Amino acid sequence: MKKILVTGGAGYIGSHTVVALQQAGYQPVIVDNFSNSEESALAGIESILGVKVPTYRIDCGNEAALRGVFEAEKDIKGVIHFAAYKAVGESVAKPLAYFQNNVGSLLTLLAVMPDFGVENLVFSSSCTVYGIPDALPVTEATPTKPASSPYGRTKQMCEEIVHDVSAAPTNKLRTILLRYFNPIGAHESAKIGELPLGVPNNLVPYITQTAAGIREKLTINGSDYETPDGTNVRDYIHVVDLAKAHIVAVQRLLDRKASESVETFNVGTGHGNSVLEVVQAFEKASGQKLNYSIGPRRPGDVPAIYADATKAAQVLGFKTETSLVDSLASSWKWQQTLK
Ligand code: UDP
Questions:
Q1: Where is the NAD-dependent epimerase/dehydratase domain positioned along the sequence (predicted)?
Q2: What are the boundaries of each domain within the chain?
Q3: How far, in Å, from the CA of 110 to the mean position of ligand 1?
Q4: What number does the ligand 1 atom closest to the CA of 232 have?
Q5: CATH class belonging to 3-184+237-267
């Protein structure tokens, strides 16, 4: 079994990808500092797979510790790098922490990988790199605009770092940059899912916590945008579908099929849904009425963004399979296990 190092492997997308890797015949190895993840994710992974996944409790920015992992595991074939902070609002309050952690951990990884002959990298990027796009849907060729938050800027910087490192004459690194849209949902077993700390920032955990009675009501952040119903439009992708994109990307790198040293793919459904449509889909999925009201706009929000998913379909053969209602049903099932 080919070993794939998964940094941030105990996190939301990481844990679902670890499960998908093992089920696809790879040997995932987790690196996580548990700064924004829980030990319970490891128990969930083990319960789904029936085996323990080797796990190192270290910070990916700690070069000596990271070297230790590559030494101990010896034959790592590729890395999927999730480990990063991910909250847009928090990044505005703590920009330095975001640059140090998100950019720092990538730099450390890129310094260590060549010393162990590891040439394959899948990097967690984000549709935030597009900023506020001029036209929709966004393709990989859509020019990036200034990011609306330090978080988005770290993703832009990380992409540029990967390009510069790859352009060096002696470089052997091959990278697939996956630009995620909005991941939602949980594993069908409801043994792993999103574990927001404190009050959720993201829409779907806020909705499920409201339906569960943990929050009083959802506030929709503005209904006066230039969108069909006035609320923001996003591309919501089921996390298990998203996890599968990583498997195809890793396989492409290991098969040496990548056409360039850095390839970029949007990973979304190709459909935009408004906040109100998500609320209605949740009500259908859960059979519950949701308490919500309209509030002011949230600073930093892009009015509308969704993916042109053609390139991932054509080049990677990747297509999402789960509908919005089914994705939300899995979120609701997961929420009910947390009560
Ligand atoms: N949103 C909302 N109320 C909330 C949380 C989010 O109306 O309590 C909206 C948010 O303004 C955005 C959409 O839901 O339009 C998705 O937000 P999220 O934070 O989940 O993801 P983002 O697109 O910002 O990465």
A1: 4-268
A2: 3-184+237-267, 203-234+270-337
A3: 32
A4: 15
A5: alpha beta
